[in-house]
Amino acid sequence: MKRVHVVVRGMVQGVGYRYTMRMIAREAGVTGWVRNLRDGSVEAEVEGTDAQVDEVLAWMADGPPGSRVDAATVTDAAPAADTTFEVLPTV
Fold first, then answer.
1. Considering only CA atoms, which of 28, 25, 63, 65 is closest in space to residue 42?
2. Which of 64, 3, 78, 2 is nearest to 42 (CA)?
3. Helix axes 17-28 and 50-62, enclosed angle (nearest 10)
4. Gap between the Cα atoms of 31 and 15, Å rounded
5. Start and end of every Acylphosphatase-like domain (predicted)?
6. pTM of the model
7. Nearest CA to 44 among 82, 6, 84?
8. Given the DSSP bridges, would you call strands 68-76 and 2-11 parallel, antiparallel or unpaired?
9. Catalytic sites, residue numbers
10. Each residue's pLDDT tens digit, 31-90
11. Taking the alpha carbons of 78, 63, 85, 90 in that order, is the dihedral positive or negative?
12. Distance (Å, rounded) from C-alpha 24 to C-alpha 20?
């Protein structure tokens, strides 16, 4: 299993990024979470097999229609005990 922490910058708030990502993540079978940050970026942690995580990361690089992804920073993260993929409150 692989878990990554991702921060996506660009026009990624107010365009359905988090809720579309939850749908994509659940379809891919990964666990984790996604949330908006006050600076206008989106932060997420995604856990699954290498192929599952890579599938979600590929989607995150483009985002939903209406979004614009300028950059995505991906770092390894420690595995967690998530059982689903959720949208968390803004921090």
1. 63
2. 64
3. 160
4. 22
5. 3-89
6. 0.96
7. 6
8. antiparallel
9. 18, 36
10. 999 999 999 999 999 999 999 999 999 999 999 999 999 999 999 999 998 999 999 999
11. positive
12. 6
